Every structure is written in structure tokens, then in C-alpha cells.
User: What shape does this take?
Amino acid sequence: MEGEEKEKSAEQMLGNSPKKEFRGEQRFSKWQLLGSERFSGRRDLLTALLSEEKVYSVFEAEKIIEKFLKGKVK
Assistant: This one.
């Protein structure tokens, strides 16, 4: 029982972390990406496109920007 409680606590802490490891990729909150130098020229797009409730890898953020920029104008 005690081991299960410790395991749950660790899972809860990891689940609440803005950074997560997933398949070897570090994941970041919208605000962490906005604060990075890598996206300094794309902050306006990230602000509009990313959700505050999700975390993203750098690759995912770049793909979201790329998809938006290649989208059709209505």
C-alpha cells in the first residue's frame, strides 16, 4: 500500500510538470516556448496557435507554425 502511494505521488508530480519527457523529447508549456530565443521571431504566431493547457516539443511547435503558414487564405 505504501509503495502505491509513493508511486501515485510521483505520477502526480510528473503530470503537473510543464516539462515532460516523451519518446526522448522534452516538452514545454506555451509560455516556456514564448520565452525561448529560438522562437523570438514567431512569438505572435505561438501566442495565437498554442494552447495554454498543453505541452509541446520544439518539433511540434515548429510543425504547428509550418502548417499554419502553408494554410490556404479564405
User: Anything to note?
Assistant: Residues 1-21 have pLDDT under 50 and may be disordered. The chain is about 55% helix and 10% strand. The first helix runs from residue 2 to 16. The longest strand covers residues 21-22.
